[in-house]
Design brief:
Elements lengths: L2 E5 L4 H11 L4 E5 L16 H16 L2 E11 L20 H11 L9 E11 L5 E12 L15 E3 L4 E2 L5 H7 L1 H17 L9 E3 L2
Parallel strand pairs: 1-2, 1-3, 5-8
Antiparallel strand pairs: 3-4, 4-5, 5-6, 6-7
Helix pairs in contact: 1-5, 4-5
């Protein structure tokens, strides 16, 4: 019997990326909407790992399914790591990606290119209904440019420029982004953990973490 995996996100961009990354695993991917889950989990953690684990364990308990959840955000060096864990919330509940990006660019106005360095971070958490958990993290460095470029991606992708590729996240192909991005790196590590779980190789592990 194929195992069901709940992707605990309502973000269509994340759903698409994770579907692509996990496509070759012998699992049935389901969503919060498909499972009729309307409860929202408040992200009260102080770190990405805490928030990812909070969502994964809560939704695993509610659904009775193996659950995959993440938390990610942007840390801008010159702003002391802001917006960090508040990356999706700093502009208010009803704010759009464009609103959040506009506020970021306003705060960086007048700051030269070489001082606009930033890091995207992501932690993916896997949780079973019984409370066993595993996490994997990833990070990617770049520079926040002054104006958005590209039509792909979501969130801060259009202003997160990767000097090595001379493009923003929004200008990368999905395949490139899945390998390079913070979320892609964390997801590929989590995929290894998930594959081991499916084969029973994680039977003796609990609360294991895989770093950057």
């Amino acid at each position: 019997m194929t195992m069901k995996l709940l992707l605990a996100t309502r973000n269509p961009g994340k759903m698409k990326e994770y579907h692509e990354i996990l496509a070759d695993l012998p699992i049935e991917i389901t969503s919060l909407t498909a499972e009729g889950i309307t409860q929202e989990v408040e992200e009260t953690g102080c770190t990405f790992a805490e928030n990812a684990l909070l969502k994964a364990t809560t939704y695993a308990r509610i659904s009775g399914l193996l659950t995959w959840a993440d938390d990610s955000g942007l840390e801008v060096d010159v702003l002391g790591g802001w917006p960090g864990v508040a990356s999706a919330r700093h502009a208010g509940v009803d704010a759009t990606d464009e609103d959040r990006t506009r506020i970021l660019l306003e705060r960086l106005e007048g700051i030269p290119y070489e001082k606009r360095t930033a890091v995207f971070r992501c932690v993916v958490a896997l949780a079973t209904p019984e409370g066993r958990t595993w996490t994997a993290s990833g990070a990617s460095s770049g520079v926040i440019i002054e104006e958005p470029r590209g039509e792909g991606g979501f969130g801060y992708d259009p202003v997160f420029y990767v000097p090595k590729y001379k493009r923003t996240y929004a200008q990368l192909t999905p395949e490139e982004k899945n390998v390079l991005s913070h979320r892609g790196r964390a997801a590929l590590k989590a995929k290894v953990l998930l594959r081991r779980y499916l084969t029973g190789a994680l039977a003796g592990n609990k609360n294991a973490a895989v770093g950057d």
